[in-house]
Predict the structure.
Amino acid sequence: MAIADFVRQDLKITSTETGENYLLLKREDRRISIIGGLVLVALTLAAGISVYVVMQRQAESILSRSLEASLQNKVLLFESQIDQGMVRTRAVTTRPFLIQSLQLLDAEPGNAKGLYDLQRIAQSFLPTGFTGMFFYDARGNEVARAGHFSQNLEQRIPLSADHRVFLLWDGRFILHAGMDVLDQQGRRIGIVMAETDQPLLTRALLEVRTIGKSGEIGMCAPLEKGMQCFMSSISGKEFGRQHRAVQGKALPMHYALEGKTGIVFTQDYRREPVVAAYAPVGKLGLGMVLKIDQAELYSPVTEQLKFIVPLLAILVLAGMLLLRWMVMPLVRKLVYSERETLAANSMLRDSETRSRAVLDSVDEGIIAIGENGVIEIFNPAAERIFGYPGSEIVGRNVSLLMPEPYRGQHDGYLKRYLETGESKILGVVREVTGVRKNGTGFPLELTASEVWVEARRLYIASARDVTARKEAEQHIMYLANHDALTGLPNRILLQDRIRQAIAQARRGNARGAVLFIDLDQFKTINDSLGHDVGDLLLKAVAERLVSGLRSEDTVARQGGDEFIVVLSSVTNAQDAGTVAQELLDAIAPPYQVKGNELHTSASIGIAIFPDDGEDGDTLLKNSDTAMYHAKEAGRTNYQFFTPEMNQLAAERQSLGTCLRHALERSELLLHFQPMVDMAGGKLVGLEVLLRWQHPEQGLIPPLKFIPLAEETGLIVPIGEWVLKSACLQLKAWQDQGYDLPLLAINLSARQFRQKTLAETIARILDETGVEARFVELEITESILMDNTDEAAETLRKLNDMGLEISIDDFGTGYSSLSYLKRFPIDKLKIDRSFVQDIATDPDDAAIVTAIIALAHSLQMKVIAEGVEEAAQLAFLSRQGCDQYQGYYFSKPLPAAEVVTKLQRRKA
């Protein structure tokens, strides 16, 4: 009976435990199913909402950038087109023939010839793009008209400009400009009223539907109340007056008219939600807005909801079914094993917690390894270092953390230590390479020690990741040996590369070469566009140089715009020349930098090892010398070093030193070459020519020292001395009673680019008492084309002062003839290279004839230089040339001889 009672009691206990486990299982099953289902629903909804938000934000971002870019393009188009229209009208007011005709009417109102000439001038402008041209005299009377003007005067808005300028709408955009015509004294003698059609602006305003069906562009001008707008066709109105706010909220155009730029989500004048980009139109007082309805913006996203919502519902349902099917067995296992593990875990918890706390708090990786090389402990710091979770790495061989060939050799090292006790790594700090889980190697600082735990041998490794320290060391080393801008080797590393190239050439009984490269005209780009543009150009040039060489060759930056190329081995000198030409060709194509198309070239000097030097310093010095000879030879070429170059360089250095003292020692002097009227042989002016009377070398020709002055920058103070000395001489002649109409003075490129040029000239004229009308400034075509906008502004200032402007050496430049109508130019000077063979060479004769006809058609005078023979003079006279100069009449004369010639002329 007792046994049976024990059996029944045991069964009763077992039954009770089974029932409790069953109830616990049911509760856990329901709880996990509910929680899991809610988690699935939440995750699915979060994912769906996230996708929708991301798509919405992406659509907003793309359209915003597109609207801003499109608006900026249209703003630039409007601004440039209106500026061009005003420049063209302003150019009309400076035409000499127009000024002469208005002066004639001002002196003789109603003069028939003046009226006829003005009508003919007005008619001549219609083929150039003007739709209407009116001329008024100084009294405001209309004296000539051509074409037609818009009659819809209500649909116009004034622009913020220096003159009376309006933008009209008559089914299309028309620019209406009225500007004063001034004589040389600045007195108004007439008014020009001109209108030009603006098809590009009309098309830009009306063709806006490319951004969307609801896309619309508007351009408005501020009124005393509200604003006057040109609109695209959504509203059906292309012109109208509007308020600057709707329901008390400012419209985007309000911000544009206040000079602000940006993009905003708001309501437009229709009270419809829109996305609008706004910006002012330059300094014209206009605002421009480009917008699209928000409904159209979000339509691609909202259309996807009908597919996304059902899909999310299906995913939630499938997830809940899979959760119930997979989690139930897991819950049962957890319930049955939980009680078995509680007792064992409670015994180990305290000890393990203390040990784990110590290991977890250590910043260094701690790895415990058994005698068989298997990892037993892997703390959190080690997990972070190697990328393995402890659960994945514990129980695996430590060689897994080593790269080859050490991985395969590890077991052999461990066996040999156990047998012999010989070890070279225990207790020593070593720097080794570790391998992360993703297979990448990294530098590791490692210390290993041996301990015994319960009669078991363990090896404890302390590991520290030193990647950051190594990278910092490498970066410091890189900065010490490379150029910060281009990433090329700097001077320090260059010396080492040259030594390596020389050693390689000696071993192979070959030759090496050093190429010294200097960019041409780089300073002009740097000064006019800024150092940021110059830096980007240097980086682009560096990339082209690297791509054009072999991997064993070296490209280094010497500094500034200078680069060095080291060719490690060449068969002969001509190979270096071939490489130099390839580099010139690689540098030559244009560069696109920050919206600017830049052009540059290079001059290259070549020194060959061992012919031109057996060490790096000598090769660099000689290649530098050869480079300067390449510049003197016309730039954009290469020159091989020759021993004679060092002598020339020494002479050049000496000459440059002397030139620096030439001004203070009064060694510079002026000569004057007469300019003669072609018709009557009358002296009409003198061209000022600079000479240098060296105390030892005698009279040095300008071609020898002027380029040196340009290169060193001395041309600026020398040029100012020339201008002031010439004006003082002119004033002296005038005080002596000599009738000298004009003095022509050359301006160098560096002088012309001076920001204070106009102020300097005005000061000199004021100090010397010379009137501006007696001074003519000669500049070359290439000077004008360096930076056309700045050149136009400088010439305008000089012209407003009353100075005449002459283009020297006309026909030898590379520029477009468009500058002739853009700039206020009074005279063209035919270069002597065209005049020399004018009587015998049909080509020269045709060129000179064309230049004279072109100048006269633009109301400009023409002077020919270098006239030395009667046949040349006769040909120029037949073609209608206005003036000439040259040895046929007189060579350049010092001031004293000029006085003698003036005295004979006066007598």
